[in-house]
Amino acid sequence: MRLEGRATRSIWLEPDGWSVGIFDQRRLPWALERLVLKTPGQAFDAIADMATRGAPLIGAVAAYGLALALREDPSTASLERSFAHLASARPTAVNLRWALERVRAAVAERPADERTALAYAQAARLCDEDVAANRAIGEAGLPLIREIAARKGGEPVNILTHCNAGWLATVDWGTATAPIYLAHDEGLPVHVWVDETRPRNQGALTAFELAGHGVPHSVVVDNAGGLLMQQGRVDMVIVGTDRVTANGDVCNKIGTYLKALAAQAHGIAFHVALPSSSFDPATPDGAAVPIEQRASDEIRFIPGPDDHGAQTRVGITASPAFNPAFDITPAGLVTGYVTEKGLIRDAAGLFTLR
Fold first, then answer.
1. Which residues carry out catalysis?
2. Which of 12, 139, 217, 343 is 20 to 30 A from 109 via CA?
């Protein structure tokens, strides 16, 4: 994707060839700052503190975090200790453990002096695979937008998103945004309604991306989605996911379930974009997914710049707050799953991803 006019990925190796660069998403969209990760502890903190976000990108950062750990100490004890620590950074996104398991499997049976290079190679492979998968997701979802565009006869296709499932949440392209970018680049008229996605305002990251790529969009408060659908101003909904269970239930950022209910009520297609790594056949349904409970201060305070551009934090309530990070959208509300292997219409088809 394009950032400051240049093709950019969300994770990279620094010029030294071993430390890992990422964007500090806590500072976006107000400041474009880069973090350099040199230790597995720094990789853990980046994931846990949401300096890096999005299920696929969390997996990539964790994979490199394990490589950093083996660079410090390539022993089996270090491998297992660092694996367990990184896996605990955030409990809900299945990509985190999936990526760690990929790296561990690549090095576990190899001599200690080979492990670091193998871990770095596996992490790089994961990143390249993510880029290819997301591009393929875009190709699979593009016909959905083309069909609506043809029906509308030149009027913009209005697409509602929730949270950030763009290139900042992956290595490149994004999941839910990949079809949008391809449609825009093809010349199809599109407009994106971007949910702000409280409490972390991750819609601001989606808007930052779309603006950088020149895609028309408008940020809306989370609860505007129902009205927009009721007024006929939404043609389709597409979201990402942190985990899809064996029966097709979708775990995604809190508020996704309400969008799916509104879409069903108004006969609007609700699609979920995911790479194979986000499908979790070992978890039977959404009820079995651990829902991360985050700090109440994420609700009680809002960070951002003041009128003079200085970063500040504003309180909005002194009351206790409850802050579940995700909710579960039942499979029955999902029109289709947009994957790198094509559009899947029912949960049974998800098993082709494994």
1. 242
2. 12
